[in-house]
Specification:
The chain is mainly α. 47% of the residues lie in helices and 6% in strands. The chain has a two-stranded antiparallel sheet with strand order 1-2. A hairpin with a 3-residue loop joins strand 3 and strand 4. The protein binds zinc ion (ZN). The site of zinc ion (ZN) has 7 residues, from helix 7.
Length: 235
């Protein structure tokens, strides 16, 4: 993908030592009381606190970064940015200790949103967040390995339904990111991974918006964060 800020395991292990004047979140427990308030910000929207939202690992012109390069086919450009999948997969691994069937029996996100998995027959399944992530990542991995969807051979072309497939992939990835922000920001902040997550999310959402890969009503639950990151990124 275009970004070069991969959240490697070593990066996670060597979490940033940056000190910010963040509030002490160690005594708060998300799952016991979803209504805890820190200042004017609901606890589960702790990610909107300026001390957190202003933290990213790279100050980039994301508008320029996501733009379709001159002469490049749109499908080719989207396919070359599917590395978002790898980045989010690595982040999921880092969260696996905290995102369990016990801590997250449903795949929830801001605004009391709950995501359901739909099986191949279209049946709606209520599943834990780690299971949803597993289903989503396996589904995406299969698509990536399907030569008919992501052709790699010279002279091959992308199928007519490629954009639709890409939209589906981006939708699943968005759900996973939305869950992490909503349910695990406390752990993410403790590990000082929020600058990585903010950068990853902002790149991802900028790319999605540029090529209309996600419906605005789908991403609305994260609009406050997207706007806040945009504001800080422009500073
Ligand atoms: Zn979780």
């Amino acid at each position: 993908m275009g970004g070069c800020y991969g959240v490697s395991r070593s990066t996670i292990a060597e979490a940033s030592h940056r000190k910010a004047d963040f509030i002490d979140i160690s005594g708060l427990k998300v799952k016991e009381n979803n209504n805890i308030n820190v200042g004017s910000v609901s606890y589960q929207k702790l990610y909107l606190q300026s001390g957190y939202v202003s933290e990213n690992i790279l100050q980039l012109d994301f508008k320029k970064l996501v733009s379709l390069p001159d002469g490049l086919d749109l499908a080719e450009w989207i396919a070359s940015n599917i590395g978002f999948f790898k980045q989010i997969n690595i982040f999921s691994s880092a969260m696996s200790e905290f995102c369990t069937g016990t801590s997250c029996p449903v795949t929830d996100a801001a605004g009391n949103k709950i995501y359901y998995w739909h099986d191949e027959q279209g049946k709606k399944l209520k599943c834990s967040a780690p299971l949803y992530t597993d289903y989503a990542m396996s589904y995406i991995q299969e698509l990536l390995e399907d030569e008919n969807v992501f052709p790699t051979k010279i002279g091959s072309t992308f199928p007519p339904g490629f954009i639709f497939m890409a939209q589906k992939i981006f939708l699943y990835l968005f759900h996973i990111l939305a869950h992490f922000y909503w349910a695990h920001f406390q752990e993410i902040a403790r590990l000082e991974l929020h600058p990585h997550l903010n950068t990853l999310y902002f790149h991802f959402i900028s790319f999605s918006q540029e090529f209309k890969l996600l419906e605005p009503q789908e991403t609305a639950i994260m609009d406050e964060l997207s706007r806040a990151l945009l504001k800080h990124n422009l500073c």
